[in-house]
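Sanity check record (used in CI):
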Amino acid sequence: MALSGAIIATACVGSVYALRRRMLGRGEGRGRSLATLEPLPDVAALSPLVLRILGGNPGLYTLQGTNTYLVGSGESRILIDAGEGRPDYLPRLLSAMEGAGVRRVSDVLISHYHRDHTEGLIELRRHFGPSLRAWKVDPPYAGAHGPSASPVFAEVRPLQGGEDGSASLRVLCTPGHTPDHACFELREEGSVFTGDCVLGGSSAVFEDLHDYMTSLKSVLAVARGRLYPGHGPVIEDGAEGIRSYIGHREARGGEGRGSAEAGEEAREAQIVAALEQTWWCGLSPLGLVRRVYPRLPWTLRLAAAHNVAQHLHALQRQGRVARRAWLPLPRGYFRLIAMLASWWRLL
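Expected output for Metallo-beta-lactamase domain-containing protein:
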């Protein structure tokens, strides 16, 4: 049974991957051509306290590449995110440090456990030594992209950037994109390093809609200046950028009803109504998509099933729906749909 399930899952992933590539070749889907993205320099001094170093991993998912940031103005600075360990990243980082008069990296802050933000830590520790401190918020991540390397990371705490206290960072726990996501407020600027909560020039994906909307509002409450995203260019008007994100989710979730909460309630009411109409057999996330979004193009249904699965989890926690154990669905079906939808969006 386990082997056959693995074979089915592999076949599904392969089919999604092939179809995704064919669609991108025709210019369809959520992916953006790299040629349409704003060019970014490998290294850029964005402010007296912030130096951006690209991770050298451009792609449809990572846009121009993962943004890593040296923060502070002293000889010792904090590095936010570590890239995914591409061969040209460490030489690029060392060159940027030399040009800015930086002698050492005191700490590495990890915004969340996705490999394009964490894998570079292995090479960093080889160069700077195994004692290089790295920090990430709990909980350990075990989502669709694999488990976090929990022995590598510890609890995040507020840190000072630079030996002279030239920059102070405050940790903001912002789950949604992943359960362990964090943003970092640079108090001297009123700016925020947003990781993958808010991207520059693109929309973000998330694992939990409710948590994600709450996190956007938490960042909005402190954003007085720029946003430094995990991918893409700087967002100069941070508050307006976050409001745009919130408005985008409200429009998609609530069809213009005016609030994210109203949009979620309306969509969940539709899901419950569809399940009540099929009480004798129930519906899978894809089945609900066919009923709730009857005119949705088939090319978007897998991504919509990912969102429906999130609503089902929320409704199940509230006791409003229940999973029928006798349905011929593999164990972890909702999770499989979420994984496939994530790959669909990111491949």
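Residues 2-29+258-346 form one domain. If this sentence no longer matches the regenerated tokens, the check is flagged for review.
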